[in-house]
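Hi L.,

You mentioned the student needs an example of a multi-chain input paired with its predicted structure. This one should do, with 1374 residues in total across all chains.
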Amino acid sequence: MTAAGSIPQAVIAPELAWVGLAILLPLLSAILCALCAALRVKSKLPALITTVALAGSCFVIVKAYFAYSGPVEVPIFQWITFEWGDGKFQSFTADCALYIDSLTLYWMLFVTGLGTLITIYASEYMEEDCGKGYSRFFFGMSIFLFSMGALVMGDNLVMLYLGWEGVGLASYLLVGYYYERPSAVEAAKKAFIMNRIGDLGLALGIFMLWCNYGTLQYGELFAAMKDGGQTSVDWDLSVIPFLLMIGAFGKSAQIPLFTWLPDAMEGPTPVSALIHAATMVTAGVFLIARMYPFFELHPQALATVAWVGGSTALVAATIGMAQYDFKRVFAYSTISQLGYMFLGLGVGTTFGACYHTLTHAFFKALLFLTAGAIMHGFAGQLDLRKLSGLRQMPGWRIVSWTMLVGCLWLSAFPYTAAFFSKDAILFKALTSERGDFRFLGWVGLATAGLTAYYTFRVWFRICAGPVHYEAGPESHDQSHDQSHDQSHDKGKPDPTPEGESHGAFHPHAPRWAINGVLVILAIGAVVVGFPAYGHVFAHKENWVQAMMASSSAYQGACLESDHGTGAAVHTQTVLGLDPHTGLTIVGSTASIGGILIAWYFHLYSRKSADQLRAALLRRWWIRWVPICMENRWYVDEIYLACFRLPMWIGAQILNFGDRHFLDGVLVDGLAKFPIAVGKVFRPLYSGALQSYAITMTGGVALVLAWVTWIWLRGFN
Amino acid sequence: MNLIWVSILFPLVAAVVIAVGPSKSARWVAFFGTLVSLGALTIFAWNFPAWHNAQHFPSDVGPSWIKDAGTTLSVGFDTVSLLLALLTAFLMPLCILGSFSAITERTKEYYAWFLVLGSSIILAFAARDAILFYIGYEFTLVPMTLIIAIYGGSERRVAATKMFLYTFLGSMFMLAALLYLGWEHRLVSGAWDFDIDTLTKTAIRLPSAIQYWLFAALMVGFAVKIPLFPLHTWLPLAHDQAPTAGSVILASAMLKLGTYGNYRFALPMAPAGGAELMSLVAVLAIIAIIYASLICWVQTDAKKLIAYSSVAHLGLCMLGLFALNPVGAEGAVFYMVNHGLSTGALFLCIGMFYERYHTKDTDVLGGLAKRMPVWSSFMVLFTLSSIGLPGLNGFVGEFLCLGGTFISEHDGLTGYPGVLGPWYAVVAGLGLIFAAMYLLILLGKIVWGVYREPPHISSSTSHGGEATRLPRDLCLREIVILTPLAVACVWLGLQPKPMLDAIAPCAEKMLANYPKEIERHMSHTSAAPLASNDQEPVNELRSE
Amino acid sequence: MSGELASGFTIVAGSQISLALAISALLFVIGLVGFLCRRNMIIMFLCTELMFQGAALAMIAFARMRMDVSGQVFVIFILTVAAAEAALALGLVVLLYRRRETLSSDAWSELGES
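Structure written out for the whole complex:
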């Protein structure tokens, strides 16, 4: 691990408070959208407000990027801050302040940029909901951008935590957007709760950091890190990276907390594109990159990240291969690509991880948006067996070709941007000193082949081949597609799923907002390759590397896969070749091979895919592979059986015990004691006046006798 | 001082006016009475000089009341009690407004008793005399019992009786402890005195073994009220049966008397006892968090769910208090106010749909987002506040309580050693996950999903009961009730700093004796802890 | 009043007080026995008055012994209260008689628990 430099000391710069607008504008937009909802605005006003606010936020970030000269801290106001002494551990400071370094700007640039584009897309995508959920949708989007801004730009870990939970809230609100669908409600809940598990880890990590360094501000933490911390609790400070990574695994859908992300596809597609593909799920990567120095507190911390990332990449890819819902395929590909990013972080290249985050943000947003356009046009059709030949349909060309771009990038086709970013990660893994990292590198290469296969499986099925389509489940749903298809749908009593409905169902092709955004994103996906092209072909400094090298993630920023220069000498080889050449050859082979296999099974001879599946299912020794892949390795079921069910049974027992034992037996039992005593003395109360008098006299006599006895004893 | 008495007595005067006046005007008189009370307290708080120095204001001793017994009518606030009294006074008018459509029979008695309830709670917070505190503390039971027993649900008598007897039994221990302290003071100085500060000074000079029992007795009294884990069973029943406004005041203000009692009496008076029993109370608090959260998970009654969630939340509050460091203590006090706001608001929300559908069963009612969008927005906001979403009020208290627990280590560098630590925080932190789970399940059932209504509702509305007069979604009055609460939740979440600054000196004052006590306690733990104290009481006498 | 005079009286009164106390005890016991044995409410009421007087006599005796008038003051109070109480109690008895047409206390046992 060569330290290219160190983290520059941040300067306090209150005059840069205008950068705070990048967070404030989405918040304002959220408030205005809430007002729109309260006033029942029926127009597209909320979309306009949000777009303008996000574009403004993006502009602010671009301006900040050009004004940037070194890390700055921008105080805004005091938030959760108090002190009880003058010592180091005698104050708690979590102010609302910004920490702006190159990592922050790098992240905010693509977050706000993609946010703006996807909002424009959504203004058309969501238009059927005008006056219904439209304001709510854009409220959620604004809250998301606000929270993401707080997460990335916050000056301390509590701000990060605010954003961390805030994006969880936005995700909850937006995944559950179609709240009348039970599956959407369930998915939203699941997303929030699984994230909360990670959040607990993050919170504990924050406390642990405070215990060791007495501060939560990044600048002070990085400074204190150099001095080595003091431990004030009985936990060793090496647990810090493990606690933080639990949070990262939750937010970025890594094993074991990945099952929420596929379910989160219940949300509207722009949400899936922005939150569950491009930005929110990369928050885990950001956290680890931001706190990278602290991941060296334990020698196995980064290795754990690498292992989790590598295995998530493989497992998610295998699941993605066997899904028929193409939005789910993309969801699993997101998990798989996030796995690559974690692998990159783990093996020690923050450059590779962050570069892959950037390229992934563009091509995956693009893929989701094309998927959304198709869903939108075909009334919610998501089954890739029921759509074919979109390429040849009028009005769908832009969608098809931009989807091809997305698919090529996702499968890391040679000399696309993603090829370089994935290459950077795998290179680092394969040339590592550690044998297990080299193994993970090979796992990553194999996964790259699987990725190419399942990606092009989708494209060859949907966009290529003969024209054929069926309407999705929403075609007879008046709430969706109302404005466009109502007239056509009314003539048709009930579209049978099998019976062909070419005559009755007309898919409506996307218009300018959707097409325009798709084209811009496709161009963007090409453009994000420029840093790598410039480096490879013109030997310029890689922009991403430069951004990483001046941030907290500098330790993994050095670009070792510097093709051409040959400066670095590596002990490891790939298949006996020079690692650069070897990796280029193997990586290209994996990618192209995967595409060719997909071409054979899903375009050239579609029947053979089913035959292969049937053949696999016939053989008992291999049968479990397709079954497990199709059923997502039964992870949800395992969680249900291992955690939810026992806890639920326990809760029922406790509930019963609380009512019938603790309250019924103990409390009421105690209350029965006086009643029982009363029963003994009850006969004394006969109702006859004289019996009371006798009792009283007897009592007085007893007292008198007692007093006399004491008197006789002489008061001792 | 006069303003304090105005805020206490004016509602009582209004109650008398209601009792003799016509029943039609009762609710407006009550509303006016609580508004005046709130206004007086607000003006007092505005001019309050002691926000930052942990002193009581006014600090002079009030008129003597029972001279030979040494009781006085001293009232005065420090920051914490003022915040809690303000919370109570703030919720009272909202509760009265919330009862307009819910209470239709015997309105005069209802509003009169409600005003008495509010007064006695404020009196308990304001009292600077232990006996005066006890009177306020105990007298809350009378109106609350009547409100539950007359206006409650089908099991209202059982619920009211249980609540009265249970909490009364608990507070007998507390009274005994306070009287004992007064007597101790008489032994030292020759005269009875029940001034809380004087009693505190007396108490901390007592030997450890006596402080141990003192703490235990006070704790039993307050633990029933909080309520802490094994002593909580009265609460779900009482909440379930109480009318909405009664639930609100019960959860938001009356339960706070328990935590406030810990802050004011148990912890500062018996530091040696606190040091001994701290880990026991913390373990109980953690059990409360997990236990109540799990029970919440399988509740189908919305009100019972929120009631159990109170047990869990106040468990976390107690944990923060017993972390015995400023982070936890600040968090705990902040959490008291926050819990009052968000749980009170949740009860109000549940009351609003109960008035429309006459059921609290989440299995038969659901999907209200389509029918009641405004209500749903409020409900979601308050639920998120209760979950502890950062940016809303719940987070600040929750985060600080948990953080305080985490850093509460014996050899910590904070200057405030404790005996909890990371593992306590891990287990208590599971409560955060559970809180998200059960509250989101509640939301998923009653707010989201397909609209479901109970089968009997269509017939009952056609009969033309009072429920039909309510619109489908919230009416203006109900929006007016919920809006101030929503604003307070958001504001305290974004700007907790002024309140944290105000609490800080009080928290430090409460903890002043603990660092030494904990050190001593820890050095003793190698030997038998209690036995050693019993044998050498003379050495334990500490000079103050 | 000088201490000597007072002490002189005490000595002289020593034998007298036991007499007075004996009479007072007698009165009290007669009243008590009467109250316990008789069923007629008026008689029972008279018996309570007897017990009163027994107590009052004891008080006067002690007051005389200690030369402290507060005992006598108490007795005057007792007499007054007893008079008021007698009016009330007799009224009650008349009322009860009207309800049940009997003066026996056995007719009124509603307070009984069983």
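You could point out the following to them. Chain A has a mean pLDDT of 84. The two ends of chain A are 88 Å apart (CA to CA).

Best wishes,
N.
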